[in-house]
Design brief:
Layout lengths: L5 E7 L7 H13 L5 E7 L11 H4 L3 E2 L5 E2 L2 H9 L8 E3 H14 L9 H17 L12 E6 L9 H13 L5 E8 L12 H12 L6 E6 L5 H10 L7 E5 L6 H8 L2 H9 L9 H15 L3 E8 L9 H13 L3 E8 L5 H6 L1 H13 L2 E4 L8 H13 L4 E4 L1 H13 L7 E2 L9 E5 L13 E9 L5 H5 L5 E8 L1 E3 L4 H6 L2 E7 L5 E6 L5 E4 L14 H10 L3 H6 L19 H8 L8
Parallel strand pairs: 1-6, 1-7, 2-5, 2-6, 7-8, 8-9, 10-11, 10-12, 12-13, 13-21, 14-15
Antiparallel strand pairs: 3-4, 15-18, 16-17, 16-19, 19-20, 20-21
Helix pairs in contact: 1-3, 1-9, 4-5, 5-6, 11-21, 12-19, 15-16
């Protein structure tokens, strides 16, 4: 039994966005597969209190946690890889630390002392990490044994200096055998010569050592596997054994990264270095990852989904949405093809200004097997989204609207079926005579940060013959994560229902419309919540799973069979309850016959 918490710090060098998040998640995954309880903390050196007010072009999407924390998308990776539930305090920012220290100073906690970066800020960072590492994140409520900490940005940035200094002190506070550092670096391969260059890594590690941290493992990100000579060169110039140089080259799917680390002896290294109590039993969970990545490499049939949004130039803006689609595609043995469409390109004004863009966008939309309109903010591109929804409704194309996508589906139906030409959301047209979407009573218009309906809320199914209810395993209610300021106007509900546009899911009080479904359509579903945040590789999110089934023409056959391949059960990870063999046989999803 572990008595001391083990800390693994992941730092990065040379460039940001090198893949520290995936490395940290993968390290956590292989340790979890050895039977340890693992938690994760992401440190972002920016001064924002949280990620809630970022544009998705800044740091990618904003990920929402059960407790309503708006955090960095790396926490989404941790939750998906490790199948854990984190809280907002697992994302630490410079803003949060300074805010807590300044509040203490105002209360007089420092008794007249000069408050400084060292020791006050650095102590606050260490206390935060030690406190948060103990919070249970697994369903069984056990205290974690290992905490993986990812330090955002690049070593040498001015803004991350207090954090590096805090961990320099921390390694002595918790003792050497309870702390180790993984440094992720880039090994570029200039196309002119084709040889792998180690100088950036050498410089990055020299800088890290100068700040008082010595890497235990150097993870080299490269496009092709590292040559042995290069590995030995890094080992020699960076003062580590060749075994401590780990190569993570570009792979076909991120599910392969834990396997890559495992193959290079990372687990046995941690066992010795951190004195971990791991028996050398077969690691069932990793078998599952292997099975998954093999499967994703072998897919032959493909299924295309048109993603109609406004942040389509940067795929990280929709990271969780893409992951949820991938999880669902994998579950039905299809390769996913996402067609990104900027919704503004579908609008008539584009036809006048840039006809080629307009026709290309419509060609993409018309050739897709299904249509997804994700959440978003602001008026730009909303008319284009309504055009796409209208097309999906009339052509009976499978459609899923999430958050704003669901609200716009309500607007589209009101305009084109109920004949309310000016129907709109008060977010975009405050003067509309038919405000079908209105802002919520608790929204405070003066302040932007943290003023939304956030976090896990319960949705009750009001109808027994709802497709989505059946996809959720005929549940009476579901708990999903929300992030919105506006909602469907409940007073106009009757008008819609009489037209076959049903609000099948509502909140506990029956005042908020949470799920819509359209009669006489193969799959026309809208959800006010964000189901993508709780999707897992092995347990796809039901609304997305339904979209993929419908897009592949398999939904009816699946429902007729009583949803036998329920995404919630297929390969649910209850490691420890079953023998490895049954665990692996559970994994092989029954293939759905072509009905």
């Amino acid at each position: 039994m572990l008595t001391n918490m083990k800390y693994i710090l992941v730092t990065g060098g040379v460039i940001s966005g090198i893949g520290k998040g995936i490395i940290a998640s993968s390290v956590g995954t292989i340790l979890k597969s050895c039977g340890l309880h693992v938690t994760a903390i992401k440190i972002d050196p920016y001064i924002n209190i949280d990620a809630g007010t970022f544009s998705p072009y800044e740091h990618g999407e904003v990920f929402v946690l059960d407790d309503g924390g708006e955090v960095d998308l790396d926490l989404g990776n941790y939750e998906r890889f490790l199948d854990i539930r984190l809280t907002k305090d697992n994302n630490l920012t410079t803003g949060k630390i300074y805010q807590s220290v300044i509040n203490k100073e105002r209360r007089g906690d420092y008794l007249g002392k000069t408050v400084q970066v060292v020791p006050h800020i650095t102590d606050a960072i260490q206390e935060w990490v030690m406190r948060q590492a103990k919070i249970p994140v697994d369903d069984d409520g056990m205290e974690p044994q290992v905490c993986v900490i990812e330090l955002g940005g690049t070593v040498g940035d001015i803004e991350s200096m207090p954090f590096i200094e805090a961990f320099r002190q921390f390694q002595f506070k918790v003792k050497k055998e309870n702390f180790c550092n993984i440094h992720v670096s880039l090994v570029p391969q200039p196309s002119a010569t084709g040889e792998q260059k180690t100088k950036p890594t050498q410089n990055s590690i020299r800088e890290l050592r100068g700040l008082g941290l010595s890497p235990d493992l150097i993870v080299c990100r490269c496009s092709t596997p590292l040559d042995n000579a290069v590995k030995e060169k890094i080992s020699m110039f960076c003062h580590v054994e060749p075994e401590q140089v780990i190569c993570v080259h570009d792979v076909s799917s991120i599910y392969r990264v834990p396997l890559l680390l495992e193959d290079q002896g990372v687990v046995s290294y941690f066992c010795d270095r951190l004195d971990l109590p791991i028996e050398s039993r077969p690691r069932r969970m990793l078998t599952k990852w292997k099975e998954m990545s093999d499967r994703s490499d072998r897919l032959l049939e493909s299924c295309s989904i048109a993603l109609v949004g406004k942040y389509t130039k940067f795929s990280d803006s929709y990271a969780s949405v893409i992951k949820a689609l991938e999880h669902s595609a994998l579950a039905i043995n299809h390769k996913l093809e996402v067609k990104y469409i900027d919704s503004a390109d579908l609008e008539p004004s584009t036809l006048q200004e840039e006809p080629v863009r307009y026709h290309e966008a419509w060609q993409k939309l018309c050739s897709a097997n299904g249509v997804l309109v994700p959440g978003g903010f602001g008026v730009r591109g909303t008319e284009g989204k309504i055009q796409a929804i209208s097309w999906a409704r009339k052509q009976k194309k499978p459609f899923l609207g999430v958050c704003l996508g669901m609200q716009l589906a309500v607007c589209e139906f009101a305009r084109n079926i109920l004949g309310w030409q000016d129907a709109n959301s008060t977010e975009f047209d405050p003067e509309s005579k038919h405000p079908v979407v209105i802002d919520m009573p608790e929204h405070n218009p003066g302040q932007m940060g943290g003023t939304m309906r956030l976090g896990k809320r319960r949705t009750i199914f009001k109808s027994t013959n709802s497709i989505l209810r059946r996809l959720y395993g005929d549940a009476e209610y579901v708990d999903e994560r929300h992030r919105h300021r506006f909602e469907v106007n409940p007073e106009l509900k009757q008008h819609f229902e009489s037209g076959g546009f049903r609000f099948v899911g509502q909140d506990m009080e029956g005042e908020r419309m949470e799920v819509i479904e359209l009669d006489d359509h193969p799959y026309f579903v809208g959800v006010q919540y964000h189901p993508e945040f709780t999707s897992r590789p092995i347990k796809p999110s039901p609304p997305y799973f339904g979209l993929l089934l419908a897009a592949a023409g398999k939904l009816q056959g699946y429902l007729q069979k009583g949803c036998r391949l329920s995404p919630r059960d297929t390969y649910s990870d209850r490691s420890g309850s079953s023998s490895p063999d049954s665990e692996i046989s559970e994994l092989k999803l029954p293939s759905i016959s072509q009905d």
